[in-house]
Design brief:
By secondary structure, the chain is of the alpha+beta class. Helices cover 26% and strands 17% of the residues. It contains seven helices and twelve strands. It has helices spanning 130-148, 183-199, 203-214, 255-276, 324-328, 337-345, 352-360, and strands at residues 17-21, 26-30, 79-82, 110-116, 153-160, 172-178, 218-221, 225-228, 239-243, 282-287, 305-309, 332-333. The strands form two sheets. Strands 3-4-6-5-10-11-9-8-7 form a nine-stranded antiparallel beta sheet, sandwiched between helices. A three-stranded mixed beta sheet has the order 1-2-12, with no helix packed on it. A hairpin with a 3-residue loop joins strand 7 (218-221) and strand 8 (225-228). Helix 1 (130-148) packs across helix 4 (255-276). The longest helix is centred in the last third of the chain and has 22 residues, at 255-276. The chain is globular, with a radius of gyration of 22 Å. The relative contact order is 0.16. The model has no long low-confidence stretch (mean pLDDT 95). It binds 5,6-dihydrouridine-5'-monophosphate. 5,6-dihydrouridine-5'-monophosphate is lined by residues 59, 66-67, 83-85, 114, 159, 166-168, 174. InterPro entries: GalP_UDPtransf1 (IPR001937), GalP_UDPtransf1_His-AS (IPR019779), GalP_Utransf_C (IPR005850), GalP_Utransf_N (IPR005849), HIT-like_sf (IPR036265). GO terms for molecular function: UDP-glucose:hexose-1-phosphate uridylyltransferase activity; zinc ion binding. Pathway: Carbohydrate metabolism; galactose metabolism.
Length: 361
C-alpha cells in the first residue's frame, strides 16, 4: 500500500492505533496484526483437572485445620474467615512525619478476609447453581456493609488459577479493607468525577448506554446487566460487568438485580471456560463508590462495576505478557476488543464439562 499513491482506509483490525481508557486516563496501543507472529516463548501448564471434592489437609475445606490451628466449621454454604497471613492489620504504630517529599510514608491499617464460595473444592462459579452464586453475592454485600462502615475502601477480588497466583484450588475470593483509597480506585474516582462534572452523567452509565446500542463489544446481556470487552481493554479477553441502572455500590442491588447478576456471571464464566475448554484463569474484582467516611458524601459520579482480567491470549497455555513495552512505555494488545468480544459472544452457554458428562452417560 505504501507508495501506491492511495491513502488506505483505516481499519481498526488491520491498522495499529491507540485508544483512550477514560477510567484510568491512560492509552492502550492496539496492534491486531501482531496475533500473526509465531510463538516460541513460554508455554503454561494447563490448570489441574483432578481436584478432590474434599481434602482434609486443604485449609480451606470444611472441617480442616488452618495454619493458625483453628478448625473450620462443617460449612455447607459460603464461609468467611480472617486471613491468617493478612497484608493489613487493624493496628499499626504511626510511622511519624516524613522529613522529605521524596520519602513520604503513612500508616496503613485494615482487615483481610478469605471467603470460600462453596464447601466443594472441585467446583467453580460457572458450575455452581444460580442460587449458590446468589449466596456468594449476598455474602459480598454483607462484607461491604460490615467493613464499609469503618473503612473507605473494601476490595473484593478473586484470583482464579495458579497462573494468577492463586495458592489454593478451592473456590474462594479475598476481601481486603483499608483505611486508605488504593491507587486504582483513587484514579477511577478522579476520572469518574471529572467526567460527571463535564458531562452531567456518570461515565459508566453513559458507557453502558452506548455499548447497549453499538453491540460490537457486547459479550452477554440481560435486563439489568451488560458485559462488554471494553473499548480500552488491555488484557486480551478482559471484560467489564456493568449494571444498566445507576448503582453506587453492591449493597444497593435489589433482589431482582442480585438474581440477574448471578445469572449473567454464570453465563460469562461459562463462556470463559468454553473458550479454551479449561477452568479459565483470571483476576476479578468489584469497584463501587468508596465507603467509610465517604458514605455520607455525594458519590453520584460513581457507577458500580466489576473488572475481569484474564491472562490468556492464544490458547490454554499461551498467555499475554505485560512486560517490556507495557512496563516501560504503555500497555499494548494483540487482538482488537471487538474481535475478542465476537469470539466470546459466539461461544456456547452450556459448560463444556457438562457437555462431556452428558456424552459419557
Ligand atoms: P489465594 O489463593 O488467592 O492466595 O488465597 C488463599 C488465602 O488463604 C491466602 O491469602 C489464606 C492465604 O493467606 N490462608 C489462610 O488464611 N489460612 C490458611 O490456613 C491457608 C491459607
Amino acid at each position: 500500500m505504501e507508495g501506491s499513491g492511495k491513502t488506505p482506509v483505516f481499519d481498526h483490525a488491520e491498522h495499529q492505533h491507540i485508544r483512550y481508557n477514560p477510567l484510568r486516563d491512560t492509552w492502550v496501543l492496539v496492534s491486531a496484526h501482531r496475533m500473526k507472529r509465531p510463538w516460541k516463548g513460554q508455554v503454561e501448564k494447563p490448570p489441574e483437572e483432578n481436584i478432590p471434592r474434599h481434602d482434609p489437609l486443604n485449609p480451606l475445606c470444611p472441617g480442616a485445620t488452618r495454619v493458625n490451628g483453628e478448625v473450620n466449621p462443617e460449612y455447607d454454604n459460603t464461609f468467611v474467615f480472617d486471613n491468617d497471613f493478612p497484608a493489613l492489620q487493624p493496628d499499626s504504630p504511626e510511622p511519624g512525619v516524613s522529613d522529605h517529599p521524596l520519602f513520604q510514608v503513612r500508616a496503613a491499617t485494615g482487615v483481610c478476609k478469605v471467603m470460600c464460595f462453596h464447601p466443594w473444592s472441585d467446583i467453580t462459579l460457572p458450575l455452581m447453581q444460580i442460587s449458590e452464586i446468589k449466596n456468594v453475592i449476598e455474602k459480598w454485600m454483607e462484607l461491604i456493609w460490615e467493613l464499609g462502615e469503618k473503612y473507605p475502601w473494601v476490595q473484593i477480588f478473586e484470583n482464579k488459577g495458579s497462573m494468577m497466583g492463586c495458592s489454593n484450588p478451592h473456590p474462594h475470593c479475598q476481601v481486603w479493607a483499608s483505611n486508605f483509597l488504593p491507587n486504582e480506585p483513587s484514579l477511577a474516582d478522579r476520572c469518574q468525577r471529572d467526567y460527571y462534572k463535564k458531562n452531567g452523567i456518570p461515565m459508566l452509565l453513559d458507557y453502558a448506554n452506548q455499548e447497549s446500542q453499538r453491540k460490537v463489544r457486547m459479550v452477554v446481556e440481560n435486563e439489568d446487566w451488560i458485559v462488554v470487552v471494553p473499548y480500552w481493554a488491555t488484557w486480551p479477553f478482559q471484560t467489564l460487568l456493568l449494571p444498566r441502572r445507576h448503582v453506587l455500590r453492591l449493597i444497593d442491588l435489589t433482589g431482582k438485580e442480585k438474581e440477574s447478576l448471578a445469572s449473567i456471571m454464570k453465563r460469562l464464566l461459562t463462556k470463559y471456560d468454553n473458550l479454551f475448554e479449561i477452568a479459565f484463569p483470571y483476576s476479578m474484582g468489584w469497584h463501587g463508590a468508596p465507603t467509610g467516611i465517604h458514605l455520607k458524601e455525594d458519590m453520584n459520579h460513581w457507577q458500580l462495576h466489576a473488572h475481569y482480567y484474564p491472562p490468556l491470549l492464544r490458547s490454554a497455555t499461551i498467555r499475554k505478557f505485560m512486560v517490556g513495552y507495557e512496563m516501560l512505555a504503555q500497555e499494548q494488545r494483540d487482538l482488537t476488543p471487538e474481535q475478542a468480544a465476537e469470539r466470546l459472544r459466539n461461544l456456547s452457554e452450556e459448560h463444556y464439562a457438562m457437555k462431556r458428562q452428558e456424552k459419557e452417560t
